[in-house]
Amino acid sequence: MTRLQRSRALRWLCTLATVAALLIVLFPVYAVIVGSFESTETLFSGTYYWLPHAATLDNYRTVIQAQSGNVLTSLIVGAGTAVLALVVAVPAAYALSKYRLRVTVVIVSALLVAQIVPSIVLATSLFVIFHWIHLVNTYPGLIIADGTYAIPFSILVLRAFFFSLPNDLTQAARVDGASEWQTFLRIVIPLARSALITVAVFAFLNGWGDFIFALTILNGATIVPVTLGIYTYLGNYSTQWGEVMAAGAFAMVPAAVMLVVAQRYIASGLTAGAVVG
Amino acid sequence: MNAVTGASSQSVGAGQRSGGAHPSGVRKDRWFTLRRRQQVAGWLFLTPAILYLLFAFALPIVYNVMLSFEQTSPATLADITAPFAGLGNYRFILDDPTTRTAIVHTFEFTVGSLFGQFIIGFSLALLFTLRFPGKTLGRSLIIIPWLLPLIVTGLIFRFLFQLEGGAVNQLLMDVGLVHQPIDWLDNPHLALLTVIIANIWLGVPFFTLLLYSALQDVPVQVKEAALIDGAGAWQRLRLVIVPIILPVIEVTLLLGFVFTVKVFDLVIALTGGGPANTTQLITTWSYNLSFQQFSFGEGAALNNVLLVLAMICAPVYLFLSRGSLRSSSGAGR
To answer: Which residue of A233, B10, B47, B65 has the fewest C-beta atoms within 10 A of its own C-beta?
Structure first.
Protein backbone atom coordinates (compact mmCIF):
# COMPACT_ATOMS: atom_id res chain seq x y z
CA MET A 1 0.00 0.00 0.00
CA THR A 2 2.69 2.47 0.98
CA ARG A 3 4.66 1.24 -1.98
CA LEU A 4 1.71 1.97 -4.24
CA GLN A 5 1.28 5.41 -2.72
CA ARG A 6 4.94 6.11 -3.16
CA SER A 7 4.88 5.16 -6.83
CA ARG A 8 1.79 7.29 -7.36
CA ALA A 9 3.47 10.26 -5.70
CA LEU A 10 6.52 9.65 -7.87
CA ARG A 11 4.37 9.68 -10.97
CA TRP A 12 2.87 13.03 -10.10
CA LEU A 13 6.34 14.34 -9.35
CA CYS A 14 7.32 13.36 -12.89
CA THR A 15 4.30 15.14 -14.29
CA LEU A 16 5.24 18.18 -12.26
CA ALA A 17 8.80 18.11 -13.61
CA THR A 18 7.45 17.84 -17.18
CA VAL A 19 5.12 20.75 -16.62
CA ALA A 20 8.02 22.82 -15.29
CA ALA A 21 10.16 21.91 -18.30
CA LEU A 22 7.34 22.73 -20.69
CA LEU A 23 6.76 26.08 -18.98
CA ILE A 24 10.36 27.01 -19.68
CA VAL A 25 10.19 25.66 -23.24
CA LEU A 26 6.89 27.29 -24.12
CA PHE A 27 7.12 30.54 -22.20
CA PRO A 28 9.19 32.37 -24.83
CA VAL A 29 6.65 31.40 -27.50
CA TYR A 30 3.84 32.57 -25.23
CA ALA A 31 5.71 35.82 -24.57
CA VAL A 32 5.99 36.58 -28.29
CA ILE A 33 2.30 36.00 -28.88
CA VAL A 34 1.20 38.06 -25.89
CA GLY A 35 3.77 40.74 -26.69
CA SER A 36 2.54 41.01 -30.25
CA PHE A 37 -0.84 42.18 -28.97
CA GLU A 38 0.52 44.74 -26.50
CA SER A 39 0.78 48.44 -27.12
CA THR A 40 4.16 50.16 -27.19
CA GLU A 41 3.27 51.96 -23.95
CA THR A 42 2.67 48.69 -22.14
CA LEU A 43 5.89 47.17 -23.45
CA PHE A 44 7.77 50.30 -22.48
CA SER A 45 6.27 50.75 -19.05
CA GLY A 46 9.26 49.08 -17.38
CA THR A 47 7.06 46.36 -15.92
CA TYR A 48 6.61 42.95 -17.47
CA TYR A 49 2.98 41.83 -17.57
CA TRP A 50 2.62 38.06 -17.35
CA LEU A 51 -0.90 38.15 -18.73
CA PRO A 52 -2.24 40.17 -21.68
CA HIS A 53 -2.53 43.74 -20.44
CA ALA A 54 -4.26 45.96 -22.97
CA ALA A 55 -4.69 43.94 -26.14
CA THR A 56 -4.52 45.77 -29.46
CA LEU A 57 -4.26 44.78 -33.10
CA ASP A 58 -2.16 47.82 -34.04
CA ASN A 59 1.08 45.85 -34.27
CA TYR A 60 -0.45 43.39 -36.69
CA ARG A 61 -1.90 46.19 -38.78
CA THR A 62 1.53 47.78 -39.14
CA VAL A 63 3.36 44.52 -39.67
CA ILE A 64 0.96 43.11 -42.25
CA GLN A 65 1.51 46.25 -44.28
CA ALA A 66 5.26 46.19 -43.86
CA GLN A 67 5.93 42.44 -43.97
CA SER A 68 3.36 40.75 -46.19
CA GLY A 69 5.73 40.96 -49.16
CA ASN A 70 8.44 39.43 -47.00
CA VAL A 71 6.16 36.55 -46.03
CA LEU A 72 5.62 35.83 -49.72
CA THR A 73 9.38 35.97 -50.30
CA SER A 74 9.98 33.50 -47.48
CA LEU A 75 7.29 31.18 -48.86
CA ILE A 76 9.02 31.19 -52.25
CA VAL A 77 12.42 30.54 -50.66
CA GLY A 78 11.04 27.77 -48.44
CA ALA A 79 9.19 26.08 -51.29
CA GLY A 80 12.20 26.46 -53.59
CA THR A 81 14.48 24.87 -51.01
CA ALA A 82 12.01 21.99 -50.58
CA VAL A 83 11.82 21.39 -54.34
CA LEU A 84 15.60 21.56 -54.77
CA ALA A 85 16.11 19.19 -51.84
CA LEU A 86 13.64 16.67 -53.28
CA VAL A 87 15.02 16.84 -56.82
CA VAL A 88 18.60 16.35 -55.68
CA ALA A 89 18.10 14.09 -52.68
CA VAL A 90 15.48 11.54 -53.71
CA PRO A 91 17.32 10.00 -56.68
CA ALA A 92 20.65 10.23 -54.86
CA ALA A 93 19.31 8.49 -51.76
CA TYR A 94 17.78 5.80 -53.98
CA ALA A 95 21.07 5.21 -55.77
CA LEU A 96 23.00 5.16 -52.49
CA SER A 97 20.71 2.55 -50.96
CA LYS A 98 19.58 0.29 -53.81
CA TYR A 99 22.47 0.22 -56.27
CA ARG A 100 25.87 -1.25 -55.66
CA LEU A 101 28.17 1.58 -56.64
CA ARG A 102 31.81 1.97 -55.78
CA VAL A 103 31.33 5.66 -54.97
CA THR A 104 28.70 5.01 -52.30
CA VAL A 105 31.16 5.09 -49.41
CA VAL A 106 32.81 8.24 -50.76
CA ILE A 107 29.52 10.09 -51.28
CA VAL A 108 28.04 9.09 -47.92
CA SER A 109 31.25 10.17 -46.18
CA ALA A 110 31.14 13.47 -48.06
CA LEU A 111 27.53 13.99 -46.95
CA LEU A 112 28.39 13.32 -43.32
CA VAL A 113 31.30 15.76 -43.51
CA ALA A 114 29.17 18.32 -45.36
CA GLN A 115 26.87 18.53 -42.35
CA ILE A 116 29.84 19.68 -40.30
CA VAL A 117 30.86 22.63 -42.51
CA PRO A 118 29.86 25.92 -40.83
CA SER A 119 27.49 28.05 -42.91
CA ILE A 120 29.58 31.20 -42.51
CA VAL A 121 32.46 29.47 -44.33
CA LEU A 122 30.16 28.72 -47.27
CA ALA A 123 28.48 32.12 -47.09
CA THR A 124 31.71 34.08 -47.47
CA SER A 125 32.88 32.14 -50.53
CA LEU A 126 29.43 31.82 -52.07
CA PHE A 127 28.97 35.56 -51.84
CA VAL A 128 32.15 36.22 -53.82
CA ILE A 129 31.44 33.41 -56.31
CA PHE A 130 27.81 34.48 -56.70
CA HIS A 131 28.93 38.06 -57.13
CA TRP A 132 31.04 36.92 -60.02
CA ILE A 133 28.34 34.82 -61.72
CA HIS A 134 25.54 37.30 -60.92
CA LEU A 135 23.62 35.16 -58.45
CA VAL A 136 23.89 37.65 -55.60
CA ASN A 137 20.50 38.99 -54.62
CA THR A 138 18.56 36.40 -56.62
CA TYR A 139 16.15 33.66 -55.60
CA PRO A 140 18.16 30.86 -57.26
CA GLY A 141 21.31 32.00 -55.45
CA LEU A 142 19.61 32.04 -52.06
CA ILE A 143 17.86 28.71 -52.66
CA ILE A 144 21.10 27.01 -53.73
CA ALA A 145 22.75 28.33 -50.56
CA ASP A 146 19.82 27.27 -48.35
CA GLY A 147 20.06 23.80 -49.84
CA THR A 148 23.34 23.35 -47.97
CA TYR A 149 21.34 22.81 -44.79
CA ALA A 150 18.70 20.60 -46.31
CA ILE A 151 20.35 18.43 -48.93
CA PRO A 152 22.92 16.37 -46.99
CA PHE A 153 20.35 15.81 -44.25
CA SER A 154 17.64 14.85 -46.76
CA ILE A 155 19.81 12.33 -48.60
CA LEU A 156 20.83 10.63 -45.36
CA VAL A 157 17.26 10.49 -44.02
CA LEU A 158 15.83 9.19 -47.30
CA ARG A 159 18.62 6.66 -47.67
CA ALA A 160 17.81 5.24 -44.24
CA PHE A 161 14.19 5.03 -45.36
CA PHE A 162 14.97 3.32 -48.69
CA PHE A 163 16.92 0.62 -46.85
CA SER A 164 13.62 -0.38 -45.25
CA LEU A 165 11.90 -0.82 -48.64
CA PRO A 166 11.94 -4.46 -49.77
CA ASN A 167 13.96 -5.10 -52.93
CA ASP A 168 11.36 -7.55 -54.26
CA LEU A 169 9.12 -4.72 -55.40
CA THR A 170 11.73 -3.06 -57.58
CA GLN A 171 12.89 -6.46 -58.81
CA ALA A 172 9.32 -7.36 -59.80
CA ALA A 173 9.01 -4.14 -61.75
CA ARG A 174 12.24 -4.90 -63.59
CA VAL A 175 11.08 -8.40 -64.44
CA ASP A 176 7.91 -6.84 -65.84
CA GLY A 177 10.12 -4.84 -68.16
CA ALA A 178 10.09 -1.46 -66.46
CA SER A 179 13.16 0.69 -67.00
CA GLU A 180 15.22 1.85 -64.03
CA TRP A 181 13.66 5.28 -64.32
CA GLN A 182 10.10 3.91 -64.51
CA THR A 183 10.75 1.71 -61.49
CA PHE A 184 11.98 4.72 -59.56
CA LEU A 185 9.11 6.95 -60.65
CA ARG A 186 6.19 4.51 -60.45
CA ILE A 187 7.18 2.18 -57.62
CA VAL A 188 9.73 3.83 -55.36
CA ILE A 189 8.42 7.39 -55.15
CA PRO A 190 4.82 6.46 -54.27
CA LEU A 191 6.07 4.07 -51.58
CA ALA A 192 8.33 6.74 -50.11
CA ARG A 193 5.61 9.37 -49.78
CA SER A 194 5.82 9.76 -46.00
CA ALA A 195 9.60 10.11 -46.10
CA LEU A 196 9.34 12.64 -48.91
CA ILE A 197 6.92 14.71 -46.83
CA THR A 198 9.33 14.69 -43.89
CA VAL A 199 12.21 15.82 -46.06
CA ALA A 200 10.16 18.49 -47.82
CA VAL A 201 8.89 19.84 -44.49
CA PHE A 202 12.40 20.15 -43.11
CA ALA A 203 13.79 21.69 -46.24
CA PHE A 204 10.94 24.20 -46.21
CA LEU A 205 11.63 25.11 -42.58
CA ASN A 206 15.33 25.50 -43.41
CA GLY A 207 14.59 27.87 -46.26
CA TRP A 208 11.94 29.74 -44.27
CA GLY A 209 14.08 30.14 -41.17
CA ASP A 210 17.42 30.79 -42.85
CA PHE A 211 19.04 34.01 -41.80
CA ILE A 212 22.76 33.77 -42.44
CA PHE A 213 22.50 33.34 -46.23
CA ALA A 214 19.73 35.92 -46.45
CA LEU A 215 22.02 38.33 -44.62
CA THR A 216 25.05 37.66 -46.79
CA ILE A 217 23.77 36.75 -50.26
CA LEU A 218 20.95 39.29 -50.44
CA ASN A 219 21.58 43.00 -50.31
CA GLY A 220 18.48 43.58 -48.22
CA ALA A 221 16.76 45.85 -50.72
CA THR A 222 14.75 43.89 -53.29
CA ILE A 223 14.40 40.36 -51.90
CA VAL A 224 13.73 40.42 -48.17
CA PRO A 225 12.65 37.24 -46.35
CA VAL A 226 10.85 37.52 -43.02
CA THR A 227 13.95 36.66 -41.01
CA LEU A 228 15.94 39.46 -42.60
CA GLY A 229 12.96 41.80 -42.17
CA ILE A 230 12.84 41.06 -38.45
CA TYR A 231 16.56 41.66 -38.10
CA THR A 232 16.35 44.98 -39.89
CA TYR A 233 13.39 45.90 -37.70
CA LEU A 234 15.35 44.96 -34.61
CA GLY A 235 18.24 47.13 -35.70
CA ASN A 236 16.31 50.17 -36.88
CA TYR A 237 13.47 50.36 -34.41
CA SER A 238 14.63 48.44 -31.38
CA THR A 239 11.99 50.33 -29.46
CA GLN A 240 9.05 48.99 -31.47
CA TRP A 241 8.87 45.71 -29.59
CA GLY A 242 5.20 45.14 -30.33
CA GLU A 243 5.76 45.18 -34.08
CA VAL A 244 8.88 43.04 -33.85
CA MET A 245 6.87 40.52 -31.81
CA ALA A 246 4.07 40.49 -34.37
CA ALA A 247 6.61 39.83 -37.13
CA GLY A 248 8.15 37.11 -34.96
CA ALA A 249 4.71 35.55 -34.48
CA PHE A 250 4.33 35.45 -38.27
CA ALA A 251 7.70 33.78 -38.63
CA MET A 252 6.64 31.07 -36.19
CA VAL A 253 3.51 30.09 -38.09
CA PRO A 254 5.07 27.49 -40.43
CA ALA A 255 6.76 25.79 -37.47
CA ALA A 256 3.39 25.62 -35.72
CA VAL A 257 1.65 24.26 -38.82
CA MET A 258 4.38 21.68 -39.32
CA LEU A 259 4.13 20.64 -35.70
CA VAL A 260 0.44 19.90 -36.15
CA VAL A 261 0.47 18.50 -39.69
CA ALA A 262 3.70 16.54 -39.68
CA GLN A 263 3.93 15.72 -35.98
CA ARG A 264 4.44 12.01 -36.47
CA TYR A 265 7.24 12.50 -38.97
CA ILE A 266 9.18 15.17 -37.15
CA ALA A 267 10.69 13.28 -34.23
CA SER A 268 11.70 10.28 -36.31
CA GLY A 269 13.04 12.54 -39.06
CA LEU A 270 15.19 14.54 -36.67
CA THR A 271 16.71 11.52 -35.01
CA ALA A 272 17.22 9.60 -38.25
CA GLY A 273 19.15 12.51 -39.67
CA ALA A 274 21.42 12.89 -36.71
CA VAL A 275 22.29 9.28 -36.04
CA VAL A 276 22.37 7.61 -39.39
CA GLY A 277 24.25 4.57 -38.10
CA MET B 1 21.63 -40.87 -70.67
CA ASN B 2 25.32 -40.53 -71.03
CA ALA B 3 25.00 -39.24 -74.54
CA VAL B 4 22.56 -36.54 -73.51
CA THR B 5 24.78 -35.28 -70.72
CA GLY B 6 27.72 -35.29 -73.04
CA ALA B 7 25.83 -33.33 -75.63
CA SER B 8 24.65 -30.72 -73.18
CA SER B 9 28.05 -30.24 -71.62
CA GLN B 10 29.49 -29.93 -75.08
CA SER B 11 26.95 -27.29 -75.99
CA VAL B 12 27.78 -25.30 -72.85
CA GLY B 13 31.39 -25.48 -73.82
CA ALA B 14 30.55 -24.33 -77.31
CA GLY B 15 28.44 -21.51 -75.91
CA GLN B 16 31.32 -20.26 -73.84
CA ARG B 17 33.59 -20.30 -76.82
CA SER B 18 31.31 -18.59 -79.26
CA GLY B 19 29.98 -15.86 -76.92
CA GLY B 20 26.67 -14.23 -77.83
CA ALA B 21 25.72 -16.76 -80.49
CA HIS B 22 24.57 -19.44 -78.06
CA PRO B 23 21.59 -19.41 -75.64
CA SER B 24 23.67 -19.63 -72.45
CA GLY B 25 26.04 -17.02 -73.78
CA VAL B 26 23.07 -14.74 -74.35
CA ARG B 27 22.01 -15.21 -70.74
CA LYS B 28 25.44 -14.21 -69.55
CA ASP B 29 25.40 -11.23 -71.86
CA ARG B 30 22.00 -10.10 -70.63
CA TRP B 31 23.15 -10.44 -67.05
CA PHE B 32 26.10 -8.29 -67.96
CA THR B 33 23.98 -5.58 -69.57
CA LEU B 34 21.58 -5.59 -66.61
CA ARG B 35 24.50 -4.94 -64.32
CA ARG B 36 25.85 -2.28 -66.67
CA ARG B 37 22.40 -0.75 -66.97
CA GLN B 38 22.17 -0.54 -63.19
CA GLN B 39 25.59 1.03 -62.91
CA VAL B 40 24.66 3.66 -65.46
CA ALA B 41 21.26 4.31 -63.80
CA GLY B 42 22.88 4.57 -60.38
CA TRP B 43 25.36 7.13 -61.63
CA LEU B 44 22.59 9.11 -63.35
CA PHE B 45 20.53 9.14 -60.16
CA LEU B 46 23.57 10.43 -58.30
CA THR B 47 24.54 13.10 -60.80
CA PRO B 48 22.45 16.00 -59.40
CA ALA B 49 23.74 15.33 -55.90
CA ILE B 50 27.37 15.11 -57.05
CA LEU B 51 27.04 18.34 -59.00
CA TYR B 52 25.40 20.03 -56.03
CA LEU B 53 28.06 18.84 -53.58
CA LEU B 54 30.79 20.06 -55.92
CA PHE B 55 29.19 23.44 -56.51
CA ALA B 56 27.82 24.26 -53.05
CA PHE B 57 30.41 22.60 -50.81
CA ALA B 58 33.66 21.67 -52.57
CA LEU B 59 33.97 24.85 -54.63
CA PRO B 60 33.31 27.28 -51.74
CA ILE B 61 35.69 25.41 -49.43
CA VAL B 62 38.48 25.43 -52.01
CA TYR B 63 37.74 29.02 -52.93
CA ASN B 64 37.79 29.97 -49.26
CA VAL B 65 41.35 28.66 -49.03
CA MET B 66 42.29 30.70 -52.10
CA LEU B 67 40.65 33.82 -50.69
CA SER B 68 42.55 33.47 -47.44
CA PHE B 69 45.83 33.96 -49.33
CA GLU B 70 44.61 36.98 -51.27
CA GLN B 71 44.81 40.69 -50.69
CA THR B 72 41.13 41.55 -51.12
CA SER B 73 39.32 44.84 -51.13
CA PRO B 74 35.85 45.92 -52.27
CA ALA B 75 37.42 46.72 -55.64
CA THR B 76 38.78 43.18 -56.16
CA LEU B 77 35.22 41.76 -55.83
CA ALA B 78 34.63 42.43 -59.51
CA ASP B 79 37.23 39.79 -60.26
CA ILE B 80 37.33 36.24 -59.07
CA THR B 81 40.95 36.53 -57.98
CA ALA B 82 42.89 39.19 -56.11
CA PRO B 83 46.64 39.79 -55.64
CA PHE B 84 48.50 37.14 -53.67
CA ALA B 85 48.97 38.09 -50.03
CA GLY B 86 50.99 35.17 -48.75
CA LEU B 87 50.33 34.52 -45.09
CA GLY B 88 49.36 38.15 -44.52
CA ASN B 89 45.73 37.45 -43.66
CA TYR B 90 46.65 34.69 -41.23
CA ARG B 91 49.31 36.89 -39.61
CA PHE B 92 46.71 39.63 -39.26
CA ILE B 93 44.04 37.52 -37.60
CA LEU B 94 46.50 35.85 -35.23
CA ASP B 95 47.78 39.25 -34.10
CA ASP B 96 44.29 40.71 -33.84
CA PRO B 97 43.14 40.83 -30.19
CA THR B 98 39.45 40.58 -31.17
CA THR B 99 40.10 37.39 -33.12
CA ARG B 100 41.94 35.90 -30.17
CA THR B 101 39.13 36.72 -27.76
CA ALA B 102 36.59 35.45 -30.30
CA ILE B 103 38.36 32.08 -30.29
CA VAL B 104 38.35 32.03 -26.48
CA HIS B 105 34.65 33.02 -26.40
CA THR B 106 33.79 30.31 -28.90
CA PHE B 107 35.49 27.80 -26.65
CA GLU B 108 33.68 29.03 -23.51
CA PHE B 109 30.38 29.23 -25.36
CA THR B 110 30.74 25.70 -26.71
CA VAL B 111 31.78 24.09 -23.43
CA GLY B 112 29.15 25.95 -21.42
CA SER B 113 26.36 25.19 -23.89
CA LEU B 114 27.22 21.51 -24.25
CA PHE B 115 27.47 21.06 -20.50
CA GLY B 116 24.05 22.59 -19.86
CA GLN B 117 22.40 20.94 -22.86
CA PHE B 118 23.70 17.50 -21.96
CA ILE B 119 22.76 17.63 -18.26
CA ILE B 120 19.26 18.97 -18.91
CA GLY B 121 18.69 16.92 -22.07
CA PHE B 122 19.75 13.67 -20.43
CA SER B 123 17.63 14.38 -17.35
CA LEU B 124 14.57 14.99 -19.52
CA ALA B 125 15.30 11.89 -21.60
CA LEU B 126 15.46 9.80 -18.43
CA LEU B 127 12.29 11.45 -17.19
CA PHE B 128 10.44 10.52 -20.39
CA THR B 129 11.39 6.84 -20.04
CA LEU B 130 9.21 6.67 -16.92
CA ARG B 131 5.45 6.25 -17.14
CA PHE B 132 3.38 9.14 -15.94
CA PRO B 133 0.47 11.33 -17.09
CA GLY B 134 1.46 13.98 -19.62
CA LYS B 135 4.54 12.18 -20.87
CA THR B 136 3.54 11.98 -24.54
CA LEU B 137 2.47 15.61 -24.66
CA GLY B 138 5.70 16.66 -23.00
CA ARG B 139 7.76 14.71 -25.45
CA SER B 140 6.04 16.16 -28.49
CA LEU B 141 6.10 19.78 -27.31
CA ILE B 142 9.72 19.72 -26.15
CA ILE B 143 10.94 19.99 -29.74
CA ILE B 144 9.34 23.41 -30.30
CA PRO B 145 12.54 25.42 -29.74
CA TRP B 146 14.08 23.51 -32.58
CA LEU B 147 11.45 24.42 -35.13
CA LEU B 148 11.55 28.17 -34.61
CA PRO B 149 13.66 30.34 -36.89
CA LEU B 150 16.85 31.11 -34.97
CA ILE B 151 16.45 34.81 -35.51
CA VAL B 152 13.08 34.66 -33.72
CA THR B 153 14.67 32.82 -30.80
CA GLY B 154 17.29 35.53 -30.60
CA LEU B 155 14.70 38.27 -30.64
CA ILE B 156 12.58 36.56 -27.96
CA PHE B 157 15.51 36.20 -25.60
CA ARG B 158 16.53 39.77 -26.23
CA PHE B 159 13.03 40.76 -25.14
CA LEU B 160 12.95 38.45 -22.11
CA PHE B 161 16.40 39.48 -20.84
CA GLN B 162 15.79 43.22 -21.18
CA LEU B 163 17.03 45.41 -18.36
CA GLU B 164 13.68 47.10 -17.80
CA GLY B 165 10.44 45.26 -18.31
CA GLY B 166 12.16 41.99 -19.18
CA ALA B 167 10.41 38.87 -17.93
CA VAL B 168 13.56 37.40 -16.37
CA ASN B 169 14.31 40.44 -14.24
CA GLN B 170 10.63 40.79 -13.38
CA LEU B 171 10.53 37.18 -12.15
CA LEU B 172 13.75 37.51 -10.14
CA MET B 173 12.47 40.68 -8.49
CA ASP B 174 8.96 39.33 -7.86
CA VAL B 175 10.45 36.31 -6.15
CA GLY B 176 12.81 38.57 -4.24
CA LEU B 177 16.08 37.09 -5.44
CA VAL B 178 17.40 40.45 -6.62
CA HIS B 179 16.44 44.03 -5.78
CA GLN B 180 17.99 45.74 -8.77
CA PRO B 181 17.31 44.53 -12.30
CA ILE B 182 20.30 42.73 -13.82
CA ASP B 183 21.77 44.05 -17.05
CA TRP B 184 21.94 40.67 -18.76
CA LEU B 185 22.75 41.86 -22.26
CA ASP B 186 24.85 44.98 -21.79
CA ASN B 187 27.05 43.93 -18.91
CA PRO B 188 30.35 42.69 -20.43
CA HIS B 189 30.68 40.10 -17.66
CA LEU B 190 27.21 38.66 -18.12
CA ALA B 191 26.43 38.89 -21.84
CA LEU B 192 28.21 35.67 -22.80
CA LEU B 193 26.42 33.81 -20.02
CA THR B 194 23.08 35.13 -21.31
CA VAL B 195 23.91 33.94 -24.82
CA ILE B 196 24.88 30.53 -23.42
CA ILE B 197 21.56 30.29 -21.53
CA ALA B 198 19.62 31.06 -24.71
CA ASN B 199 21.65 28.48 -26.63
CA ILE B 200 21.04 25.85 -23.97
CA TRP B 201 17.30 26.47 -24.32
CA LEU B 202 17.73 26.02 -28.04
CA GLY B 203 19.80 22.82 -27.89
CA VAL B 204 18.08 20.83 -25.15
CA PRO B 205 15.43 19.29 -27.47
CA PHE B 206 18.15 17.81 -29.69
CA PHE B 207 19.85 16.13 -26.73
CA THR B 208 16.54 15.01 -25.23
CA LEU B 209 15.31 13.43 -28.47
CA LEU B 210 18.51 11.59 -29.33
CA LEU B 211 19.20 10.35 -25.82
CA TYR B 212 15.56 9.38 -25.35
CA SER B 213 15.53 7.24 -28.48
CA ALA B 214 18.78 5.62 -27.34
CA LEU B 215 17.29 4.88 -23.92
CA GLN B 216 14.30 3.26 -25.64
CA ASP B 217 16.67 0.77 -27.22
CA VAL B 218 18.13 -0.44 -23.91
CA PRO B 219 16.72 -3.99 -23.54
CA VAL B 220 14.23 -4.34 -20.70
CA GLN B 221 15.84 -7.63 -19.64
CA VAL B 222 19.12 -5.88 -18.94
CA LYS B 223 17.44 -3.31 -16.73
CA GLU B 224 15.45 -6.03 -14.96
CA ALA B 225 18.53 -8.16 -14.41
CA ALA B 226 20.30 -5.21 -12.79
CA LEU B 227 17.23 -4.60 -10.64
CA ILE B 228 17.13 -8.22 -9.49
CA ASP B 229 20.83 -8.07 -8.70
CA GLY B 230 19.96 -5.30 -6.27
CA ALA B 231 21.44 -2.34 -8.13
CA GLY B 232 20.07 1.04 -7.03
CA ALA B 233 18.77 3.62 -9.47
CA TRP B 234 22.07 5.48 -9.66
CA GLN B 235 24.08 2.26 -10.05
CA ARG B 236 21.73 1.06 -12.80
CA LEU B 237 22.20 4.33 -14.61
CA ARG B 238 25.96 4.54 -14.21
CA LEU B 239 26.94 0.88 -14.62
CA VAL B 240 24.27 -0.47 -16.97
CA ILE B 241 22.44 2.20 -18.96
CA VAL B 242 25.23 4.69 -19.69
CA PRO B 243 27.67 2.04 -20.98
CA ILE B 244 24.98 0.67 -23.32
CA ILE B 245 24.05 4.03 -24.82
CA LEU B 246 27.60 5.40 -24.77
CA PRO B 247 27.94 5.34 -28.59
CA VAL B 248 24.85 7.54 -28.92
CA ILE B 249 26.10 9.86 -26.17
CA GLU B 250 29.34 10.22 -28.11
CA VAL B 251 27.60 11.01 -31.40
CA THR B 252 25.23 13.44 -29.67
CA LEU B 253 28.05 15.34 -27.97
CA LEU B 254 30.03 15.36 -31.20
CA LEU B 255 27.16 16.76 -33.25
CA GLY B 256 26.32 19.12 -30.40
CA PHE B 257 29.90 20.43 -30.60
CA VAL B 258 29.65 20.91 -34.36
CA PHE B 259 26.29 22.69 -34.11
CA THR B 260 27.49 24.92 -31.28
CA VAL B 261 30.71 25.97 -32.99
CA LYS B 262 28.56 27.06 -35.96
CA VAL B 263 26.07 29.19 -33.99
CA PHE B 264 25.63 32.58 -35.63
CA ASP B 265 22.03 33.79 -35.95
CA LEU B 266 21.27 33.59 -32.24
CA VAL B 267 24.22 35.75 -31.23
CA ILE B 268 23.69 38.28 -34.01
CA ALA B 269 20.07 38.77 -32.93
CA LEU B 270 20.76 38.72 -29.22
CA THR B 271 23.86 40.87 -28.78
CA GLY B 272 25.40 41.40 -32.22
CA GLY B 273 28.72 40.36 -30.69
CA GLY B 274 28.70 43.16 -28.13
CA PRO B 275 29.01 44.69 -25.62
CA ALA B 276 32.64 45.53 -26.39
CA ASN B 277 33.06 42.27 -28.39
CA THR B 278 32.46 40.18 -25.25
CA THR B 279 30.07 37.87 -27.11
CA GLN B 280 31.98 37.98 -30.38
CA LEU B 281 32.38 34.38 -31.58
CA ILE B 282 34.50 33.13 -34.49
CA THR B 283 31.40 33.04 -36.70
CA THR B 284 30.17 36.53 -35.88
CA TRP B 285 33.65 38.02 -36.10
CA SER B 286 34.23 36.33 -39.44
CA TYR B 287 30.98 37.87 -40.67
CA ASN B 288 32.11 41.22 -39.37
CA LEU B 289 35.50 40.98 -41.12
CA SER B 290 34.04 39.88 -44.45
CA PHE B 291 30.75 41.69 -44.71
CA GLN B 292 31.18 44.81 -42.60
CA GLN B 293 34.84 45.60 -43.06
CA PHE B 294 34.90 43.98 -46.53
CA SER B 295 38.17 42.21 -45.70
CA PHE B 296 37.15 38.96 -47.36
CA GLY B 297 40.71 37.64 -47.22
CA GLU B 298 40.90 38.03 -43.46
CA GLY B 299 37.38 36.66 -43.05
CA ALA B 300 38.34 33.66 -45.16
CA ALA B 301 41.47 33.08 -43.07
CA LEU B 302 39.35 33.06 -39.92
CA ASN B 303 36.85 30.79 -41.67
CA ASN B 304 39.62 28.30 -42.23
CA VAL B 305 40.47 28.35 -38.53
CA LEU B 306 36.79 27.62 -37.84
CA LEU B 307 36.68 24.93 -40.50
CA VAL B 308 39.72 23.16 -39.03
CA LEU B 309 38.14 23.39 -35.58
CA ALA B 310 34.90 21.84 -36.83
CA MET B 311 36.66 19.27 -38.99
CA ILE B 312 38.55 17.87 -36.01
CA CYS B 313 35.29 16.01 -35.45
CA ALA B 314 34.99 14.64 -38.96
CA PRO B 315 37.16 11.50 -38.56
CA VAL B 316 35.48 10.64 -35.26
CA TYR B 317 32.05 11.23 -36.76
CA LEU B 318 32.84 9.05 -39.76
CA PHE B 319 34.18 6.36 -37.44
CA LEU B 320 31.07 6.44 -35.26
CA SER B 321 28.86 6.34 -38.38
CA ARG B 322 30.83 3.50 -39.99
CA GLY B 323 27.77 1.25 -39.72
CA SER B 324 25.88 3.40 -42.20
CA LEU B 325 28.85 3.55 -44.54
CA ARG B 326 29.19 -0.21 -44.60
CA SER B 327 25.52 -1.06 -45.06
CA SER B 328 25.69 0.70 -48.42
CA SER B 329 27.27 -2.28 -50.09
CA GLY B 330 25.41 -5.54 -49.72
CA ALA B 331 22.05 -3.80 -49.60
CA GLY B 332 22.05 -3.84 -53.40
CA ARG B 333 20.26 -7.07 -54.20
So the answer is: B10
